[in-house]
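Hi C.,

You asked whether I'd gotten around to modeling the 291-residue construct. I have! Everything is below, sequence then structure, no commentary in between.
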Amino acid sequence: MEVPRRRQLNDILLGLFLLSHPGPVALHIVAVAVFALLAAWPHLSWSIFALIAGAHAAMQISIAMLNDYCDRGIDARGKPRKPIPRGLILPREALVAGLFMIALMLILLLPLPPLALIISLAYLALGQGYNLGLKSTPLSGIVFALAMPLIPLYAFAGIGRSVPFLFWLAPVGFLLGVALNLANSLPDVEEDAAGGAHTLAVALGVRRSFLLCQLLILLSAMLIAALALLNIVPARPLMLIITLILTALSILAMQLFSGPARPVETRKSFFYLFVLTCIVLTGGWLIGVFV
């Protein structure tokens, strides 16, 4: 990696923007915003909402920045367009920026209930553990599975609301967490295998990873439907039906436009569609329960 002798301010700003992984982080912020709105409905405090979304955004950006810092050697060999190999950002700048975002997260969490801080620290520990080596092992799927249920729990804790229904978010979140880990790994699975990483997607292979992604989101939808039919978690039938139909259509779209036989370039779109489908499924379920 060769760092330019003189960098323009625009180079540094672009590097920080790319370092934050804006696409995936934006999807996480949307998810937290949806859950926070549902938790606060119909008495929303915009200041509390801003603190919840801002603190989670700072945490996700810190995980993204420190991910690139930890991967700078691997990226220099396999992903030269990343901001550190390109010389837009120095490694120490990425480290300082990531630590700064953690400090900002803690500051924004101070006015919120203590449980929101505890949940955020648990999520942060999982995210940084992923960065520090777990992502190169099959345990990466478990990290995602444990982290995903924490997002709605954090949003509800930040609002200061606790309902028994949240218990059922754990199994749904666990299934979707494993699936999200696979979907996130699919664009780089060949590079990971060549680099000696033993992620869950590498262990399963491309074909089985695609299949398991869709199977797990289907199982999640079936579990949500079963909870409603058995009146364990009652939900408005019309909202639930619309949510399940949209989920089914999204799964069909994934099969049509991406898959093991499609070009590698389609896998990134598959990931974004998969994340949006998870948000629609869980968000629609919560709307049906609470609104």
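If it helps when you're writing up: The chain has a mean pLDDT of 88.

Thanks,
B.
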